[in-house]
Design brief:
Blueprint lengths: L2 H7 L13 H12 L10 E6 L2 H8 L22 E8 H34 L3 E2 L7 H8 L5 E10 L13 H4 L6
Antiparallel strand pairs: 1-2, 2-4, 3-4
């Protein structure tokens, strides 16, 4: 699959087949994430690959659906994915290079780029995933026993899609692009 095919094939997948994702495939996905652009070569990311059913259940319990973090139900659909990747910002690494600014801006942008690389690699491998931000980071940290200098930013359930999702609507280029020419 070429790059543009992967971009157009990427979907937010929420239903998975139970087939395991082989280690060599996971390594390729994580290697793609590792090659994301990063300010000052900070590489402020860390990825936790969670296959344990018990740990995945604990992480799902930290999530919510809808706009209310305290009143929403957990996103139980995530348990259908055989793998859950927890994308974290490594605050120690971020701060060592850029001080406070590394904590507040650059590290999160860099992690977002790494997550997008991961999601495009997922599509190229014929897998599906969904970037989930609706969770309580401190509770997720406790589930995994993460050190204080790791901040969980995204949960990414992934696996083989149970069905092919339709392409989502996208605004036309004319609605989002402005050109400044001489």
């Amino acid at each position: 699959m070429d790059f543009y095919e992967a971009v157009h094939a990427r979907r937010s997948v929420r239903a998975f087949r139970p087939d395991p994702v082989p280690d060599d495939v996971m390594d390729r996905l994580l290697d793609a994430a590792r090659w994301a652009p990063t300010g000052g070569n900070m590489q402020p990311w860390e990825f936790w690959v969670v296959r344990s059913r018990r740990a995945r259940e604990g992480l799902v319990a930290t999530t919510w659906q809808g706009p209310d973090p305290e009143g929403g139900r957990p996103q139980s659909w995530m348990l259908g994915a055989p793998v859950l990747v927890v994308a974290c910002v490594n605050l120690r690494r971020a701060g060592a290079r850029y001080g406070r600014k590394g904590f507040t801006v650059a590290a999160y942008f860099d992690l977002g780029a790494a997550i997008e690389n991961l999601l495009l690699a997922v599509a190229a491998e014929g897998l599906g995933a969904c970037w989930v931000a609706g969770f309580h980071p401190d509770r997720a940290r406790a589930v995994l026993g993460l050190p204080e200098d790791l901040e969980p930013v995204a949960l990414i359930p992934l696996g083989y899609p149970a069905r092919v999702a339709r392409p989502p609507y996208r605004l036309p280029l004319a609605d989002i692009v402005r050109r400044v020419d001489d």
